[in-house]
Each structure stands twice: as C-alpha cells, then as structure tokens.
C-alpha cells in the first residue's frame, strides 16, 4: 500500500503525470518463460474453446503463459468462459498480442476468482501482460456480465493488462457473494497498475467497480470510452446497502481519463447511509479530458450529514488536472475532505461542496484549487451549499461564469452554512461575471461565523458583507 506521505515524497506531480503516457509494454518474445506452462500444450481434441486447457494448466500450480496468436479463435485469440482462478494463480502473456476473449455472445464472465465461504480467501493472484476482450459490440450493454470478476481475494496484482469491450464492468471487485446469497467476502491488497481500460463504444457500466475492501490501489492506468450515460463512471467505489461493507485505504494515482461518460463521476465514491464512511483516500495526479457525462471528475457521497461524532474520512484530492468536463468535483457529503493544488479548466457546470438535500452536507472541508473558464454554461465555478467548517483558501478564479444574472466565481447557499472562511483567494480577472460571490441565505444561515479576508480583487470590486 502506498501512503500519501510516501507517494508525494518519492515522486512529484511532474513525474507522476509523465508516467501517464505510453504505459503499455512493448511486445516481448513469444517463448514461454522459464518455469511456466503454456496453455496450448494442454489442449485436447474434445475442447470446444480454450477454457479447459487453461484450467488444466492452472491445476499444475505453475505460472500459466498464453503465447500470442496460439488460441483457438481464427485470429489466434484464446476463447474463455469463466476461467476459474485459485490461490497462487499466475497468468501472463506476450503483451497486448496475447488476447483472451469471451468465448461467445452468451459468455457472462471470462475470468473469475470467487471464494466459496466467508472464511476462505483466495490469495496471491497475478494477471499480467495480456489483453482481455469482451463482446460489447455484439451483445450491447448487459449488466452484471463482468469481464473479470474477483470476490474473496487478497494479494492481487494486475499489471500491464488491456481490458476492452466489456458489456458491464471490466474489472469487478466484489466484497460479497451475490450469485446465491448476500454474504461478506474479503477484498484486500489489490494493485492495478499500468493497465488500459477501453470500453470501445461507451456502452458499458464501469471500467472498475469496487463494492468494498481495503488497501486498493489503481495507478498509472488509462481509461478510454468507458460508461453509458445512465451508469456511474470509469471507477466506482460503491457498496450495496448492507452493514458489513467497508472501504479503507483507497488510492487512485496518476491515471488518465479520456472520452469517458456516466452520470455520477469519473472517480466516484458512493456509500449508502447504513455503511460506514470510507477512510483514508488519496486521489492524486490524475488527468481528466473530454468527459461526456453529467457528473464530476471526482465525486464523493456518504448519503448522510456528517456530525462531530463521525470520524474523519481523511480524503485527499490533490494535483489532478481536468479539462473540458461538466464539473471538476462534486462532494455531496463527507467529513474531512481536502482538495488542493488541483486545476480545473473549461467546465460547463460547477464544482460543489455539500449538496443541499437531507442526506447532503460536508464538514471539515477545504479547497485550494485553480478554476479557469469554469461555469461557462451555468454561470458558477464553485458552489457551497451546506456544511460546517468549510475553508476556501488560496484558490484562484479566472474567467469564471458567463456574465448573466447570478453569475459569479463563488455561489453560497441556500442550505445551512456554518464556520465558512474565504481567505486569500485570487478573484481578479472575472470581468464577465456580474458579482464575485452570489449568496442565497438559508433561514438559519449564521453570518457571524463567516470569515472573509485577504482576497485579491480587481479595482472597484468588493465582496458582499454578511
């Protein structure tokens, strides 16, 4: 697991962003690595596809190799239907030319690792240097037909894998057994690195879905053309409404998102009110471009109002770069959320904190970001609706809004806002907006708790007095 401290000490944002490009490896030699077994060597004449041969290879307990171009499909791809992994399984190939494909249009899942009981956990699983393909162009969207389905696993490494054309989720990490009954399962110590998730036609659910787990890292991955308009987004941490779920120590680092969609968020955390709020989250160094959806690039909701008794989520969202999306961040609800050194450019809608609804609101939240050309359609760059102890400090706003009535870099209200601080922000160069802060006070808005100091304004501008 990578801590926030180690991450930013070891590598700065420049190095992190430089790692985004060119992450798939060059195709290596097609010979079987020493100590591994090759799937074609286990094929028999009665096999209708490559599942049985691969299953026999796994049964040897040795690493299993898929040599490029030697599968049973006409183009040399390996045809699989629910290839079952066990503890210690290691699958490898020769890079993107080693193609593992869903066997036909009726195949729900290509690769699965699922423990039988809550006490059993499958451990030490590696999938690397392969391409895994679904058949979304043939089947269209089919929910719950997840291309890779892991449930009850620990110590998983997925490296340099292309996951493409999934009909539902590309990679599903399920902290439950749901095919028979709803029972808890372990998801722990999972690292997904240097992978490509390509939805092909945006007619899928999510690239990665996580219903629960701890020590989960997604790093240096690319996401392309993922998610249909009525599904969450490329990465979705979303438990079902059962109390046994937990989300702890989550990392999304140095990933690149382009031409993706969805209705909730490109990196989304959505927790039902019966599930404990997630803890220890770092979303850092990512790049978002060409978003086609109606959510935020980063979205968080715990579906309840936080209070003093609730532990801090320790959620840090930093050093991300977003361009041309709908909203930079949508923090519906949460406690202990820090946004800093992010850059949001050219968004049609607003970023916001603490949505004004019964289950919305933030506590102990801060923003120190750059907003440029944001709110060009809706007129607002940053909205704060509802919360307690919110600080916007050292942020800059340039060319915000659209000049229409109510347009402004910052919008406040109409929910209850307590202990609000607007300190040291640069609000110059927003001439197209009619005001700098638009206020809609709720009935119990407490003006005495507001601190507005040291903000930079253009000549003749001033902030409202509360």
Keywords:
mainly beta; single chain; 38 strands; disordered N terminus; 2 domains; Pectate Lyase C-like; 466 residues
pLDDT < 50 stretches: 1-29
Number of discrete domains: 2
Per CATH, the architecture of the largest domain is 3 Solenoid
Provide a count of the helices: 4
CATH class of the largest domain: Mainly Beta
Broad structural category: mainly beta
Strand order across the largest sheet = 4-7-9-11-16-19-22-25-28-30-32-35-37
Largest sheet: 13 strands, parallel
CATH fold naming of the largest domain: Pectate Lyase C-like
β-strand percent reads 35-45%
- Give the strand tally: 38
Q: Kindly state the mean pLDDT as a whole number?
A: 90
Distance between the termini: 46 Å
Based on CA atoms alone, the radius of gyration comes out at 24 Å
Per-chain topology:
Elements (H helix, E strand, L loop, with lengths): L3 H7 L2 H6 L18 E2 L12 H9 L4 E3 L11 E3 L2 E2 L5 E4 L5 E4 L8 E4 L7 E12 L2 H4 L8 E4 L1 E12 L6 E4 L1 E2 L5 E2 L2 E7 L2 E3 L9 E3 L2 E7 L2 E3 L10 E3 L9 E7 L2 E3 L6 E6 L8 E6 L2 E3 L6 E6 L13 E4 L2 E3 L3 E5 L1 E13 L5 E3 L7 E12 L7 E5 L2 E7 L2 E3 L9 E5 L4 E7 L13 E3 L11 E3 L13
Parallel strand pairs: 1-2, 2-5, 3-6, 4-7, 5-8, 6-8, 7-9, 8-10, 9-11, 10-14, 10-15, 11-16, 14-17, 15-18, 16-19, 17-20, 18-21, 19-22, 20-23, 21-24, 22-25, 23-26, 24-27, 25-28, 26-29, 27-29, 28-30, 29-31, 30-32, 31-33, 31-34, 32-35, 33-36, 35-37, 36-38
Antiparallel strand pairs: 12-13
